[in-house]
Amino acid sequence: MGKREARVPRLPSGSAAGLMAVINRTLTQFYDKGRHYSLSNALSAVDTAVADGADIVDIRVPRPNRGPRYLRL
Hints:
By secondary structure, the protein is of the alpha+beta class.
């Protein structure tokens, strides 16, 4: 068997990488089992993520219909 090489994408010159945190506000999330479902827990998780260095925080919420939904902070 031949040797395999992993290809790692490179950022364009002059670009900066950022850190993104994902907060799931769903009861069906398999990883955290709804730990951030309540608004107060979600906002606390956002504060923690930002304090830990997150540049972007993506808050995932369940959509009961097809229209876009936004969480007002």
